[in-house]
Amino acid sequence: MAKKQNKERNYSEAELINMFGLMRIPDQSTPLMQEWLQATALLTPAEKITFDDILQDAKQNIAGWQEEDLKMQFIAFVLRLGYLRNHLAYHTYFEKTISATVEGHFLKTKTDFMVAKGVLDLPQTPYFHFQEWKPLKNPTGDSMAQLLEAFLIAQETNKNGKPLYGCEVVGKQWNFVTMEAKTYCISKSYDCTDELDLLQIIAILRKFKEILETRLLD
User: How many CB atoms lie within 10 A of CB 75?
Assistant: First the structure.
């Protein structure tokens, strides 16, 4: 029997693969990921004004933004354009620490943004994790490992066998990630300072909202 481990520590992506027998698929080839990425979006005139504004701001300033700048000046607006906001059936949470003991290993991580069913400020069933929106300069920690920890904690918490969705952001590069059982799949990188890539990022976020409301909610 595996010895239960209750001490919090920071893991690397490779360590989590070895500990939990995970399979990494980096070529976005799973049906789940392909379906998610095949999304399109049309912007209203008002949305296009916001889109153009944050795109130009990112092009000019993202190289020098620290984490709070990246969140407040850019990502917050992308989330709104992606329609990820509070709903009667789920909520959005920022800076929430989640934890669980998974296969005898204690995991704990802070999610920068999470979509989950919950009550007030208490998330109960996580569906989507943003992890991590790190600045381009001086990032700290293994962001993919932190996202995987959030997924593993969510699987243990939810206990429903449904897939999980998320996104890793480092500077201008966005990678979307899905996890089914022990397999996680990573999309290509999207450059949020590129107009077409940014529109696709928004489309993918809107597609997740559709998937959430039609398949993931209990």
Answer: 22
Task: Quote the strand ranges of the chain, DSSP E.
Answer: 23-25, 91-102, 105-119, 122-134, 164-170, 173-180, 183-191
Give the count of domains, the chain: 1
pTM of the model: 0.90
- Asked whether residue 111 is assigned to any structural domain, the reply reads yes
Which residue range forms the structural domain that includes residue 167? 13-216
Domain contains 203: yes
Which residues, 6+ apart, have CB-to-CB distance to 209 below 8 Å?
82, 83, 84
The two three-digit tokens of residue 96, written as one number: 């929430």
Residue by residue, DSSP assigns 68-106 as HHHIIIIIHHHHHHTT----SS-EEEEEEEEEEEETTEE
Q: What is the pLDDT of residue 7?
A: 60
> Is residue 100 in some structural domain?
yes
Contact 52, 199 (CB under 8 A): no
Q: Which of these, 116, 126, 97, lies nearest to 8 by C-alpha position? A: 97
Amino acid code (one letter) for 7:
K
pLDDT tens-digit readout, 87-101: 888 999 988 999 999
Task: Say if 147 falls within a structural domain.
Answer: yes
With CA atoms as reference, report the closest residue to 74 among 161, 185, 177, 202: 202
